[in-house]
Sequence to fold (603 residues):
Amino acid sequence: MSYLVLARKWRPQTFEEVVGQHAVVRTLQNAIDRKRIPHAIIFSGVRGVGKTTLARLVAKALNCQDGPTRIPCNRCEHCVEITNGNAIDIHEIDGASNRGIQEIRELKENIRFFPNKSRYKIIIIDEVHMLTTEAFNALLKTLEEPPEHVFFMFATTELHKIPITILSRCQRYELQKVSSRELFAFFSKIAREEKVKISDWALNIIVREAGGSVRDGLSLLDQIFSFSGDKITDEDVIQVLGLVDSQVVSSLAAAVLNGDLASGLKMLDEVTAYGIDLKRLVNDLLYYFRGLLVCRISANPERLLEMPDQEFEEMRQVAAQHTAETLQLYFNLLLKGAEEMQYSSHPRLSLELTLIRASEAGNVVPVSQLLERLENIHGNGIVTSEKYRATPQASAAKTAVREKAKKGVAPKPVRVEIQKESASQGSKEAEKEELDEETKKQEIAAPAVSEVAPEAVNQKEDEEASAESIVQPPAKEVRKNWDEFIDYVMDRKKWMAHTLRLCSGVREEGSDLILKFDDPSDCKMLQTKENIKFLTEFSQDFFQKEFKIVIRIRGGDSQGMINQEGIGPQEERRALANDPLVQMATEVLGGRVVNIRTGPRSR
Fold:
């Protein structure tokens, strides 16, 4: 007798032998017991999960000599013929090969006649989604009112391709991927029956590669049995399946986490020399970092990760040494790198660039911890300015920002540009001379200071702090920089920039930015409240002045063309300028605010 592959040898012959799919099996058995069997059934799911097998089992249960029964005897003539695949009343059709309307017409003519030997005629169409539209239409009436002696069983991997008119006439059963634990138990049973010794680690690898498909796993198992004989080692599985050793993956991950780029690139070169698929390596690395992240954030990671106990314990120890934010960053970088490799003509170079990015990423510190560190710096006196800590509003704002950061609430996106101050050697010497001179004056005036009341000193310090706390970024002149402003608007709203070029005149009067137009049609779009708001934001962002837009038309009596109450971002700009976090950043960095932008580009 010719050799029978494991996928055919271990095909279930009863409902109890089906791996997984417990809900579907129970529903079918109850329907058979209560004689509520639908005349048309669709089994859907990924490859190798038991669609065609269940269709054959239903046919066997219906035509069994003791049936219809939920437990076919597998001994009678009908059961044996169905098992061998030569039952005359079971028509199993490949939808991909017999997809035209002519084949369906022949099928309809055939089902008009009663069964030759069995109780029912069973029509099994595999990959039914491959039928043409005309073939589906030819089936509609037959599916709606089929003969009493005919049952239809459809199997498909792409349920969405079947017309809704067909789906509405069938009872649907969606088969799920088989769980890893059930696959592991099933493959262990096969290994024992086949008298082959294989480790749990090797079986876990086969289960992972099967991806929830029983048939895929049996094909891999058959291949490994042929390679190794009666005893299978872990190295055999790695060699046959072309996998990357777990030690290589963990070592490469350790190099990335430690920022050891040289070791990482060296290991990558060694792996490439062995001819290992780089895409598989990246996928293994992705799953490793996913495991680290699960170990770091989950209370019960063993439920989400299926691996040997030794590897699981090592992974937990590695995960404990890094923050969840750090692991998430590495996972995100590797995921993007894997996507880039799919479309890259140089996969190795793409992978090397991904490792470089990941190695240089460094540790990620949560925002709440950064705020607390800055607060500690102020508290320890490293930053000598007392303005920020002395203001009650600043302390309250700082607490609010820290609480929002802990809760994960992101602040409103704005742009505040801070430029670090730098002084030349000459200016530093001049500052030193001024400081020495000021010190001498203070020493001379020291006795007089002691006579000042403490309340007056505190009041004076508060006045100085409040006066100095208002940030005033450098402004630009309107007429001198008007052309640059139009280019600035061009990057944000092209039509508005073209409209501004039609201005016959522009000038600044106090807090008003006055735009003159000769023709009312030139500025009609600009006069809406929404566009005035955009123009106000653009002008304030560019000129760093709290402008109010005024449009004047030649011969017109009215100056303000639209009510601008509530549309100006002046209050928002003031709040940003005096934000405690901005002030603290300028003090810590020794810089100054050069731009405050609230317009659309900064969002």
Observations:
- The first helix runs from residue 6 to 9.
- The first strand starts at residue 40 and ends at 44.
- The CA atoms of residues 394 and 400 lie 10 Å apart.
- The chain has five domains: 6-174, 180-241, 246-361, 365-409, 412-429+467-603.
